[in-house]
Each structure stands twice: as structure tokens, then as C-alpha cells.
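Shipment paperwork, digital attachment
Item: protein structure file
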Amino acid sequence: MPGYDDSPIPAFGVEFDARAWTNTAVISLDGGSTDVSLPDYGTGEGVYDDPVAFLLGHGSQSVRSLSKELSTLWSGGGKGGTLVVDIGPDDLVRVRCTGAGAETFSVVGSASNVLGLRGTINAVSDGAGGYVATATSQWIRGPIDLADSDTTISVTPGSGGGPYSGPGYGGVAQNVPVLLRARGAEGDDDDGHSTDCLEKLLNTAHSAILQTVRVHIDETGHVVITAPSSVFTALDWPSTTFRDRLGFTGNETRMVGWSFATITADLPLPGFLVPTRPLDRLNWSSFTVAAGGRAASGIVTATTMGTYHRVSLRTYVDGPADERDLHHHLLHGVAPYMVPGAGVSLYQDWGDTRRARRARDVTADAPAYDTAYTSEEDGYRGRLRLQVPADFTDLTVDWPGALRRRAQLDLSLEVNPGATR
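Attachment content:
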């Protein structure tokens, strides 16, 4: 089921190389009393697909995923079966109770619930001994405020007791799929950083029990850290190079409201670009690398290296006369990371960080939609894992006139053959 926005804003994220800070103290949320160090990266470690993978690993702390929160409350109340909140094959959020002793239930959300679970929804049989309540509306794309009443849902067992409500803590999650995903428990292609993403490291050091620290990238491409004000008392940077790598300047002000502290980087995240306009075009092409020759008999033969795919796209970058001047960020904050061979994640809809899946790739084992993949628009939504081609030379800002309003940005990137879609 498609989202509500038919012209979404894209984002580009270049791979994040953290090896310069291996086994180095980089950040503290309590003024320097407890420093957080990055892991001691071994061979083949320390390079993340993109900044989202480094910052939050495409998921939540296991106990803070909405599915795990409600499941724990459900089982703690002595209820049968296992409660799960996920995204079904129609791209709607659903609450399920499965397994031995599964019980029926109802779900209540506000009239504008961001999960699409609006009003009272009574679970029905799933035909396999369990029960399911499916959202009546599409979930809202983009970052979500976990303290907002429009994010909360309540589950009431048919046998009495409850209701069991979540999310249980505030902060901001990157989006709905991230809120539902429990890092380390998903076992899919995006569940590879349950122990070494920054959000995990911050929670281990500062909120080991409740695990309430959240990190995300906002709608404009700035890094945001949220945590209870009792946990996040003062931001300190043992490594100023790491601070700069995340777009922080050291001049940011910690904001406190409703017992939660928030800090937003002054600068856009280096190696990450969120334009203000949708993609103007996106075209696919394929090319074959081969050496051919003709034998004496006239037969043509060839030695083929392989067939590869390329994505050519166009968008526009704002200048000082437009909404959000990004041309210096492009030239000085993104271009240095665009080296041949570098991985690039193209988020065709920045509000939805799931991987893209074409309709032709949908099978019984690879559904059209879940918390990791989307086949919306037949692969023209969701995240593409690309790479900078070998012949890449430069990024140019060319104003069409004297008024520096917007500059056309054309990119040609290759599908990364070493990456799963």
C-alpha cells in the first residue's frame, strides 16, 4: 500500500568509515564523566553502509522496540501466545498474537495515530490459530515523537486485564519501521549492527537498564540525540574530529522539555544530503563489460566479465536565494566522501529507510512489504545500495543565472554488486 506522499524527498548517504576512531573515546552525555568509545575494529570492520547504519543500525534497542515492549507487558500479565507488532504484506502495521494459547484482543489508537492503528480495532482470526488486528490507515513516514499521544497504542486482552500501552518512553525514532525493529533480533540484511552502532554504545554507557537514548537524522539531514534529561545532562566531545564528522560544532544548546533532553547538530551531517525537492528523474540502465573477437571461421566469441546496472538521477540543490542553502555542504561536506568505489545509499523516500524490492523479486520468502523491505512503486521507493563508479570525477554546482537559487545535480551511480538489495 503506497504512502500518502507521491513526490517524496530523497536522501543520499555515503558509507561511514569509523576506523579513524577505533577504540577511541568520542562522546559523552554526562559532561565527560562517562566517555563512550567506538569499538576496537578488526579487519573488515568499521565501515558502515551509510550514516544511518552507523548511528542507529536500522533498528531500536531490543527492549525499546514497540513490538518487544508490548510483548513483555503481555507476557508479564500472564497472557497466552506471543504478541508481535510488525508490518504486514499489504504495508499496514498490524498487531498479532500467535503461538500456543494465543488470545484475542483489541487495539486502540488516536484518530490520527501515526501507525495507522486508529480508533478501536478488534482482532480477527488469522486462520492459523492466532489473531491479528490490522491498521485501517497507512503509517506516517518520517521521524516520530514517541511522547506524542498520536504514537501510543493500547492493547486490551479479550480475557480481561490490561490495557498494555506503548511506547513506554519518549524521544524520537527515525521512523515507524525503526520503532518496530529490535536490533539483534530481526536476523535480516539490515540487522548487522546491534552491538556497534552509536545508539547502542550510548545506551550501554549511559542507560544500560532502561536503554532510553535515541539517535536519528532529521528531515533536513542533521543528527539529533534524545534521552531523559537525567541521563543526558551535558554533551561532551573527547574527540573533536568525531564531533565534526557528525556535523556538531560544540556551540549547540541542549533543549529540555517533558523530562527529555534533545540536541541537534548545527550543521548537516557530512556525507549525507537531503535536498528540499523530489527527484526530478531516475533512470535505470545496464551495461556489459566484455572483450569480443572474431575467429577465422567468422564466429564471434567474447569473454564476459559481467553485466552491471547503473542509476542516473537528477535533483536540485538549494542556493542562498532559496529555502535551505546546501551548495557548500554538497561541495565541502559530501564531495570529499564520493570517491570511486564508495558505497552510497539512495533513499528514494527519506521518510522510509527500508530497502527497495522490485515486484519481480517478491516470493513466499521475500514478501512485498515488511519492516526491512518495501516494493512500493515497483522498487522506485525504498533504499537502493549503490556505489560511486570508477570513472566518477566531480560534483559541480552550476547556477543557471545570476540568482543563486538552485543548481541542477546530476549523478550516475552503479548498483553495488557486492551488496544485497
